[in-house]
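Quick one:
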Amino acid sequence: MDTEDARQRIEKLRETIDHHNYRYYVLDSPEISDQEYDRLFRELVQLEEEYPQLITPDSPSQRVGAAPLEVFGVVEHREPMLSLGNAFSGEELIAWYKRISGLIGEERFELVAELKMDGLAVALTYEEGKLVTGATRGDGFRGEDVTQNLKTIRSIPLAVSGSVPRRFEVRGEVYLSRAGFKKLNEARAKAGQPLFANPRNAAAGSIRQLDSRVTAQRPLDIFIYGLGWVEGESPSTHWETMEYLKSLGFKVNPTNSLLGDIEEVEALYQHWIAEREHLPYEADGVVVKVNRFDLQERLGVVGREPRWAVAYKFPAIQATTRLLDVGVNVGRSGTLNPYAILEPVQVGGVTLKRAALHNEDDIRRKDIRIGDTVTVQRAGEVIPEVVGPVVSLRTGKERFFTMPTHCPVCGSSVIRPEGEAMSYCTNASCPAQAYERLKLFVSRGALDIQGIGEKQAEALFQSGLVKDVGDLYSLKDKKDELTAMERMAEKSVSNMLAAIEGSKERPLARTLFALGIRHVGSETAEILAEHFRSMDELSRATMENLTSIPAIGPKIAESVIDFFSKESNKAIIQKLRKAGVRLEMEESKREVLPFSGHEFVLTGKLEAFSRTEAEARIKELGGSAGSSVTKKTTILVAGADPGSKLDRARELGTRILTEGEFLNLLEEAKE
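Output:
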């Protein structure tokens, strides 16, 4: 690339980055993912390093953030609020460590690691122990005066007492918890207001309210992450400073860690990658800081970033790509479910080609159009979803999606009941519905018929040997047809038939769940089984019978009555009864199940089965499954990379099992 080409590309990058800075920092409405923004910024920095004569004072690489909104008063930061450099891999983190190690002439030195919150950075100034000013970071040198709004956050002390400097400033990150974010968006949806894209935008939007009474109604919180400046003496290390601020009443993140070397940082980073989805708030990395202030001062600042700190970013869970088309599949209850067909894109180390779009109303609300550049999101084991379109990249060739009027599988008419978000295929015998019900029926959380995975289920269905779930129990008379099928050796067929036979002894609640009754999940199935005691009694239940149960509302009741009113479903129940599938509660085993009286809690990643499947096994054997470790917890099952629940269990003296020990316990319970 020659100088002129570089100049043109740099100008284009600056224009694009300035646009997205404005969208992110000022309007709180980003159009691209953090991953894409980081890529653009790194390209600009690299080009400016190659062509230093093209660097200008107004380049985004020479400043932090964007200018403050003039509607608020402006606060001049006494010490700049600089942003952090990023490390996107272990190699980049090591390179940062070696670089600063060479500069200070020490091979080992203490580091502090803190979760990088996805919120809004603010500076709080105190005089004579009282909060006098609260400001946003703004462009790093000038921020917005949002004092009144920050005072509404209950975790920010309005005054501190004790041995405090006459004047000092603390810095922190205002954030919104996942639960608070969900509640806020639900309220906005009911009011017909646009939804916030993520908790960071919601926090920023809340702090920038002109009416502080609105801010006060939102569940904002803060973690203090440092001392900006102080008049008088202060501790000599960052860790001591955070402990001091904590003693004054400031909220400091309890996950902060004092570490001896970079290897410990990597171990902590891997821990938080595994546990990040269990945090009550969004975090996008780990901030690593040199602990000693004298070393920080020697290292100083380069450009827009302090040398003594770096943000070790988590793998991206968002990315942008093109929406090629919208497909529609049919669920087991007849719902028509739209999904995004994407230009393949890497998100968090996984290539995404499809993502959820939920329903037609959601597509309309987000204004998603076929051909759009869209932001997609993947978090943990959650199904990838389309967050929204990048409107500024539209060409005019995009087109709206319309739900089909006929089922894409069987061609039957499609209806959308009044007041519901989903459209439905009207054909109860639709092959797609039958196939989806079959997959549920054999799954681990349902009747757990081992040897029938998704591919085997599809083969059985397409061969015509299984037209509904009741037909599984007549396969023992079709062994020759089964062994003639592709990839169905005699031994695997024998194992499959044995598993089908064994499934007859599953508890009534598992069978109820396996039938795929709309709105009846595993917990609701347990409630219905316990109350009615048999399939026959449940099939005769009236609306009054059902809604008299505290946990059963009108929607569930209507769905149950509708299911048992259909002749096709009655025929399936008859097949199950004829085959000897248990359709009643077994009284004799109610009080003597192996796990009776035990409350289990699961933590970390399990290899043998999902958390839902493990909990189903526990409940089948009479135990209960809790979400947090308390004094009532009797057994903690710790998988790979266990989180804070393990520490809590040790504190309480709770029995702790590895996954292998848990599997052995399950085997013993069968005997």
